Amino acid sequence: MGIQRIVKMTFKEEHCMDFENYFESIKDKVAGQPGCSGVKLLKDVAENGVYFTYSYWQSQSDLNAYRNTSLFGAVWPKVKKWFADKPEAWSTQVVTTSNSEN
């Protein structure tokens, strides 16, 4: 069973578009990492500057391997300087789902 990685990031308002544009430029590289089957960027509808990345991994070891790549080593320091608050992250597994999931 795979895992879903959810990372909540809060950005300074002046860097929201910087982050959205940067994510657009790297999303396919992240999704192309061994063991990754996709990544989404979600934006909070009620709170400005709050974003979530939602990525799908075959295993925790695949996620850990990605965190040791040069890609992650370039991405994280770049976006970290735009943060307004400390990021939060969770590795989750699906317990149950419905047929109408989008």
What report would you give on this structure?
With 102 residues, the protein is α+β, with helices and mostly antiparallel strands. The protein has one domain (3-92): Alpha-Beta Plaits, CATH 3.30.70. 33% of the residues lie in helices and 28% in strands. A 4-stranded antiparallel beta sheet has the order 2-3-1-4. Helix 1 packs antiparallel against helix 3. The protein is globular. It starts with a strand and ends in a 10-residue tail after the last strand. The relative contact order is 0.28.
Counted by DSSP, the helix tally is: 3
In CATH, the architecture is 2-Layer Sandwich
Radius of gyration: 14 Å
What is the mean predicted local confidence, pLDDT? 94
Instruction: Give the CATH topology.
Output: Alpha-Beta Plaits
- The CATH class is Alpha Beta
Give the low-pLDDT segments: none
Number of strands: 4
Structural class: alpha+beta
The biggest beta sheet is recorded as: 4 strands, antiparallel
So what's the overall shape?
globular
**How far is the N terminus from the C terminus?**
19 Å
- Estimate nothing, just give the exact number of structural domains: 1
Percent of residues in helices comes to: 25-40%
> Strands of the largest sheet, in order across it?
2-3-1-4
Q: Report strand %.
A: 25-35%
Give the SSE order as H and E letters: EHEEHHE
